[in-house]
Amino acid sequence: MSPPPKSPESQVRPYTSPCSEVDNDQIAAVTSRPIPISNPQNLCPRDATPEDLEKLRHVADKIPRIAWLVAFTGAAQRFAFYGTTVPWPKFPPQSDVLPHAGKILALAARSRFHLSAADPSYQSFHYNRTVPWTAAFVHEIRRGLRSCRAVICFTVFYLCFNQSTTNIISQANQMEISGVSNDTVQSLNAIFYIIINPIIQNWLFPFLARRHIAFGPIARMTVSFFLLAVAMGYAAGTQALIYSRGPCFSYPRACEAATVVGVDGVTTEHRPNEVSMWVQAPFHLFLAVGEIFGFVALNEFEYIEAPTNMKALVKAFEQFTAALGAGLSMALGPVSKDPWLVTMNASLAGTMAISGVAFYAVFWRFDRYWHTNQNITNSDDSRVIVTEDSKE
């Protein structure tokens, strides 16, 4: 039994354009079968009406925010990739530095740590051996090791710097927080950094340069050592002030006098000693200035002194130094508690000051050569700090 015929209004007619500019015969020639469409008149081009424009204006409002977020994130990712890689030249791959550097250090270790023993001429004369590196590469290893000697001194620097994220936050918890959390005061470091860094870069350094006062990277790093020593000394003084105030004195929040009933009338809380948390603000000021002098000068020193093939290795060694500082911070865990915090902070301040004196006593010559030769470039298009090799 055949289905009942459809009404003329519901029948779908094959597509034939009613528009005069459309060739219906050409459409039939390129299509294998007619295109069914219910109302061909709507496909004719026409001018937009005010009602159409009003509807189009609100189309973007119907797009969910997650779609805009995905589109923006994708565009930002593409810009970050191509914007940072396309402008830079692509150098052909070179031989790996690590295997050759390891072999050179091994040869030096077997020769009482004399790098000259790894020189190709030395190996050829004494052992009749041909090595795959050049004398210039051995000299670069020597320069890289000189850079690492300065970087290793930052172990104590990182040890004291890490106190701002550990014991200093705990110290703030022992003080009256005045309506903010004890983590909030840590943001003062970033605030001071943002404010003081332009002052130092745009005013202090040009002022010293106009008066021909040498202030090289070693001097700046030494200043940062002493600033961190002052910061740790101030932290020790702040801790002594906390211990001198009630209600718990040397054991903040750990005595019966500090126990108070909570707002719900059931739970109990322990109030801190009667010292405002904002007393810590100068510590973060000294820390921020020390960070500006220390880390910026260290990066400059590494970039200038380390050879081109050794810059990444020296930077990686800096991260190893930071890891050593973090490990020492963990080792101080057993003594990082009341009532020994004053002694611990004072000891760190003294260690930092002694490290600053020793650092400058060992590396002060670098600044002299840096100031003299800062306009001289070597074959790697980098400035030379030291022009004479250390005697072996």
UniProtKB/TrEMBL annotation:
The record's principal subcellular location, in a coarse class, is: membrane
Q: Where in the cell is it found?
A: Membrane
Q: Name one GO molecular function term.
A: transmembrane transporter activity
One Pfam entry name: PTR2
UniProt keyword Transmembrane, yes or no? yes
Entry's transmembrane regions? 150-170, 190-209, 221-243, 281-301, 313-334, 340-363
Membrane topology listed for this record: Multi-pass membrane protein
Mark out the compositionally biased spans (Polar residues): 8-19
Gene3D superfamilies found in the cross-reference section: MFS general substrate transporter like domains (1.20.1250.20)
Q: Region Disordered: list its residue ranges.
A: 1-20
Which UniProt key words apply to this protein? Membrane, Transmembrane, Transmembrane helix
Its GO CC terms are:
membrane
The similarity comment for this entry is:
Belongs to the major facilitator superfamily. Proton-dependent oligopeptide transporter (POT/PTR) (TC 2.A.17) family.
Its name, as the record gives it, is Oligopeptide transporter
Q: Which organism is it from?
A: Daldinia eschscholtzii
Which classification does the entry list for the species?
Eukaryota, Fungi, Dikarya, Ascomycota, Pezizomycotina
